[in-house]
Design goal:
Helix content is 11%, strand content 49%. It has 184 residues and is mainly β. The chain has 3 helices and 14 strands. 23% of the residues are buried. A 6-stranded antiparallel barrel has the order 1-2-6-5-4-7. Strands 12-11-10-9-14-13 form a 6-stranded mixed beta sheet. A two-stranded antiparallel sheet has the order 3-8.
Length: 184
């Protein structure tokens, strides 16, 4: 049985291709890396699933969404003010979270950090919020290593299991070890 939660509404059609502007209420959009494949649009008091062709982030409270079923501004015009719902049990819908600040969205202290290939790297010990540069602190070989942590680098997120998968640049962990070898 689907457990649907209202996350916002469609404010207006956008462009000529049938895209719409979606305004989120209490929820915020965390990452386009883990975008949902569909959303529910309330039509005649019934939430119906529609597949997503593309999502553009305006900010964490507004999205431009192009649904597969709507090909023109006219076809999408009837969606104005329609409520948008998610099925909370769908894993791809974990990109919508309650909270407004970057600290709320990216505070993964205590989460297990994995790379893109599902290899466990370490537990995130702390998160540092520096203007325009959020960093995850992990311990590798008893040394603190700081990794860039932003929404575009997150490939998978499971808040219930407290896991985050991150795109990590090749050789990033070898940089510090190379420096130590040169000093010897």
């Amino acid at each position: 049985m689907k457990q649907l939660t209202k996350i916002g509404y469609i404010s207006k059609s956008h462009k000529l291709n049938g895209a719409v502007r979606l305004v989120l209420k209490e929820y915020a959009f965390v990452s386009d890396a883990i975008s949902p494949t569909f959303l529910f649009i309330e039509i005649e008091k019934t939430p119906l699933p529609f597949f997503i062709e593309k999502i553009e982030i305006v900010n964490d409270k507004e999205l431009i969404v192009k649904f597969e079923e709507f090909e023109s501004r006219e076809s999408a015009a009837g969606l104005k003010n329609a409520a948008i719902f998610i099925d909370e049990k769908e894993a791809t819908h974990q990109c919508f979270v309650i909270g407004e600040s970057i600290e709320d969205k990216l505070n993964f202290a205590g989460y297990d950090l994995y790379d893109e290939n599902d290899n466990l790297i370490a537990k995130i010990e702390d998160v540092y919020f520096i203007p325009n540069n959020t960093l995850a602190a992990i311990l590798l070989n008893n040394e603190e290593v700081l990794l860039p942590l932003n929404e575009k680098l997150i490939t998978k997120l499971d808040r219930k299991k407290k896991t985050v998968h991150l795109k990590i640049a090749d050789g990033l962990f070898d940089l510090d070890h190379t420096k130590n070898e040169e000093e010897e």
